[in-house]
Amino acid sequence: MAAVSQLPWHWGLRGCSWARRFCPCPESAVAPVYRDALSRSAAGDAQITRAFSGRPARGLENRFTREMRGLEDSVPDFPILNALTGPLRKASGQAGNTDFMSLWAGQSAPLSATSRGRTARRTGQGD
Question: Residue 100 maps to which CATH number?
Answer without folding.
Answer: 3.20.20.70
